[in-house]
Design brief:
This protein is α+β, with helices and mostly antiparallel strands. The chain is built from two helices and six strands. It is globular and about 40 Å long. The model has no long low-confidence stretch (mean pLDDT 94).
Length: 111
């Protein structure tokens, strides 16, 4: 899928999440950013690092981007994940909000 309509930080987020060391992904978040995933909230770099090295890395997955839209400082990306997690397949919506410097200030992942 074409990434040209997405901010550089959202594009970088998905590139880093596809790498073996997901902890580097923290680089795209503002210092006090928030991630909401699977009913849990992670605030700040330390908590986000815990999420990246724990729940976000728990299963082996492949992903297919189904849609992507950026409007101002908000991006919505829908991704199909397939892998060794319960159910084996799910479509997730990633809602990103950016701070004034272009870093990701919040990420909410929902089904």
């Amino acid at each position: 899928m074409n990434n040209s309509n997405l901010s550089p930080m959202v594009t970088r987020y998905f590139e880093l999440m596809a790498s073996p060391d997901k902890t580097r992904t923290v680089e795209v978040f503002s210092t006090d950013a928030t991630v909401i995933d699977d009913g849990h909230t992670y605030r700040g770099h330390d908590a986000i690092l815990g999420w990246l090295s724990g729940p976000a890395s728990e299963f082996t997955t492949t992903s297919t981007r189904l849609s992507a839209e950026q409007t101002g400082t908000r991006a919505l990306v829908v991704v199909r994940l397939e892998g060794d997690f319960p159910g084996g397949r799910v479509d997730l919506s990633y809602t990103f909000d950016h701070d004034p410097d272009g870093l990701i200030d919040s990420l909410t992942i929902t089904t």
